[in-house]
Design goal:
Elements (H helix, E strand, L loop, with lengths): L3 E6 L14 H10 L2 E10 L2 H9 L1 H8 L12 E5 L2 E9 L9 H18 L5 E5 L4 H9 L7 E5 L4 H8 L3 H6 L3 E4 L2 H11 L4 E3 L6 H4 L15 E5 L8 H12 L5 E5 L6 H10 L6 E5 L7 H6 L2 E3 L9 H8 L3 E5 L15 E3 L4 H12 L3 H17 L2 H13 L4
Parallel strand pairs: 1-2, 1-5, 2-4, 5-6, 6-7, 7-8, 9-10, 9-12, 10-11, 12-13, 13-14
Antiparallel strand pairs: 3-4
Helix pairs in contact: 1-16, 2-3, 10-11, 10-14, 13-15
């Protein structure tokens, strides 16, 4: 198998629009392994009326459209390098958010992509896409030009009905053109198989970076008594239920001591959470730290005994693994991104998303454990994170693509 990887996505670090590094963590590891990666990041563009309305009501647009609202009108294909990896950021037009791209947009981007590869003398040995739209169509079109290149599509979405709704009768044919599918979580895999049946696949989990895996941390000292140090790391938005954490701790501990750090940007539900803290005189127990660079969060994990975030619609949730890597007893959501990674009561705990009463029960359950039982869960959490290092998951991923036709 050759070493050239064509990587298509709609979410990548970009100078024009913000984007998480979830995909870059894979490509960066592959580049260190000796692969040549070419990234094309597609920026959705809509009719000007959408841009105008989003500009008037940016917070409302972000709430209903997503974290990255397409408000710019930059119609140029831009180039930059991200840690030495060539990245083309290019606009692609469609009429409505979450809708299918029209054929002429696909045709135009396919022609542009072929020009880019010709100019770079780049012939793909593997074609990989993240997020189904428009990658599913583009990958299928590219197969006719590069029939020997294995194809892979990684699904971040659980709404399989939306995918079928966009492609209708063509969906089975398009999916058959994908040699191997990566599922970002077990719930996504279950949703896919319920709708379309089984497909050659692998689990495409995110990995933990090396700084989180370094073992020169101070050992966590668990006692036979209640935990006292808690942490939440994430957006302060409704679907992550940040208020449930402080509510549960207040109910369980009452006048007894505990400390909770909220790490994350002060977003939509911050006023609601802050009001609860004020109303219940918890300002000496709860801190709103704000947004912290990823590598600097380590010190907060090391100060904490327990990480809690019981969100819904969580595709994966790297922060859970990062907390586990630092030995935190971690509470995540059932049937969400950590399902199948966290085994309840073994290397962490699972709670129904947003269920404050169940969260209270879990906190009491942890507090009733002996020091050795808590230590065992902490150690197993760390072992889970070590197995899912950046290198390990990237290696498993690319080997699955290379062997897709065997």
């Amino acid at each position: 198998m050759g070493k050239n990887i064509l990587f298509l996505t709609t979410m990548y670090p970009d100078r024009i629009r913000r984007g998480t590094k979830v995909c870059h963590y894979f490509t960066y590891e592959w580049s260190k392994m000796g692969y040549n990666v070419l990234v094309v990041n597609y920026r959705s563009m809509f009719p000007p009326i959408y841009t105008t309305v989003a500009g008037w009501f940016p917070k409302l647009a972000e709430r209903f459209v997503g974290n990255d609202v397409e408000m710019d009108r930059n119609m140029e294909c831009n180039f930059h390098e991200e840690d030495g990896i060539p990245v083309y950021s290019t606009p692609i037009f469609k009429y409505i958010p979450h809708g299918k791209y029209p054929k002429r947009s696909i045709d135009k981007k396919l022609q542009e992509l072929q020009t880019i590869m010709k100019d770079r003398q780049f012939v793909p040995d593997m074609i990989i896409g993240h997020f189904y739209n428009p990658q599913l169509e583009l990958i299928n079109r590219l197969k006719s030009f590069y029939p020997d290149a294995p194809t892979c599509l990684v699904l971040h979405e659980t709404q399989m009905g939306v995918i079928r709704g966009n492609y209708k009768r063509d969906i089975e044919k398009l999916l058959s053109g994908i040699d191997v599918i990566g599922f970002r979580s077990y719930p996504i895999k279950d949703c896919y198989e319920a709708e379309y049946g089984q497909h050659k696949h692998f689990m495409c989990f995110s990995g933990v970076s090396q700084p989180y895996l370094q073992i020169n941390q101070q050992e966590k000292n668990f006692s036979d008594g209640p935990l006292t140090q808690y942490i939440y790391v994430g957006q302060l938005i409704e679907r992550k239920y940040p208020i449930r954490v402080v509510e549960a701790l207040n109910r369980v501990y009452a006048d007894k001591p505990f400390q909770l750090n909220y790490i994350g940007k002060h977003e939509f539900v911050y006023p609601k959470v802050k009001q609860y803290v004020d109303d219940n005189n918890l300002n000496d127990k709860v801190s709103f730290v704000g947004q912290v660079p990823r590598d600097e969060i380590i010190k907060y994990y090391d100060q904490a005994d327990c990480f809690i975030m019981i969100s819904r619609d969580e595709v994966f949730g790297l922060v859970y693994l990062e907390a586990m890597a630092r030995g935190c007893i971690t509470v995540a959501s059932k049937n969400e991104g950590m399902q199948g990674i966290i085994e309840d009561g073994v290397n962490g705990f699972l709670c129904e998303a947003g269920n404050g009463e169940e969260l209270c029960q879990i906190i009491r359950r942890i507090n009733n454990m002996s020091a050795s039982e808590k230590k065992a869960i902490s150690e197993k959490a760390r072992a889970t994170a070590i197995a899912l290092s950046d290198y390990n998951v990237a290696k498993t991923y690319i080997e699955a693509v290379e062997n897709a036709r065997k």
